[in-house]
Amino acid sequence: MSSKKLVHTLRMPIRWGDMDAMGHVNNTNYFRYIESARIAWLEQVGGLPDARGEGPVIVNASMNFIKQLTYPGEIEVTTFVSPPGRSSVEVSHEIRLVNGLGEAGDLHAEGMAKVVWVDFRLGKSAPLPDVLRAQLPEA
């Protein structure tokens, strides 16, 4: 059985504009939250895309909404990675509301994205670079 590895934690404020007419954070913003966390992790490990070369592309994404988020507040997004394939890795996230004591509290959503490393010039997948692979758990 493969295990996930915690690789990054990011805190960010819930913005007024994240809410919708129902008075809670719109579901599309949860995907923005995990995107921000994923990009921050990729930036940290040297895995940002180079439009003239290679980089990560999302091939699917999903979200389980557990509890509503509302403004004002702060969230913590933790990022986990699974053992990689040749050119892909599954990245998962937990979104938790930060409580008044500054601690990450209840789980509000769980998201996932499958990232494929792509050679943009050839328009097809390429092996994950060593710099990124070194951050991933072994199969």
Characterization of this structure:
It is a single chain. By secondary structure, the protein is an alpha+beta fold. It has a single domain, classed as Thiol Ester Dehydrase, Chain A (Roll). 16% of the residues lie in helices and 43% in strands. It has helices at residues 27-44, 130-133; strands at residues 5-14, 54-65, 73-81, 88-98, 104-119, 124-125. Strands 1, 2, 3, 4, 5 and 6 form a six-stranded antiparallel β-sheet that branches. The protein is elongated and about 45 Å long. The relative contact order is 0.25. The model has no long low-confidence stretch (mean pLDDT 93).
Proper CATH architecture? Roll
Please indicate the count of domains.
1
- CATH class bucket: Alpha Beta
- Could you name the CATH homologous superfamily? Hotdog Thioesterase
User: Can you give the mean pLDDT?
Assistant: 93
Strand pairing plus helix content: what structural class? Answer: alpha+beta
CATH topology: Thiol Ester Dehydrase, Chain A
Please give the share of residues in helix.
10-25%
Strand content: 35-45%
Q: Give the overall shape.
A: elongated
Poorly predicted sequence stretches spanning 5 or more consecutive residues: none
Keywords, please?
Thiol Ester Dehydrase, Chain A; 2 helices; 139 residues; 16% helix; alpha+beta; six-stranded antiparallel sheet
SSE blueprint:
Blueprint (H helix, E strand, L loop, with lengths): L4 E10 L12 H18 L9 E12 L7 E9 L6 E11 L5 E16 L4 E2 L4 H4 L6
Antiparallel strand pairs: 1-3, 2-5, 3-4, 4-5, 5-6
Can you describe this structure in just a few lines?
The chain is an alpha+beta fold and 139 residues long. The chain has a single domain (5-133), classed as Thiol Ester Dehydrase, Chain A.
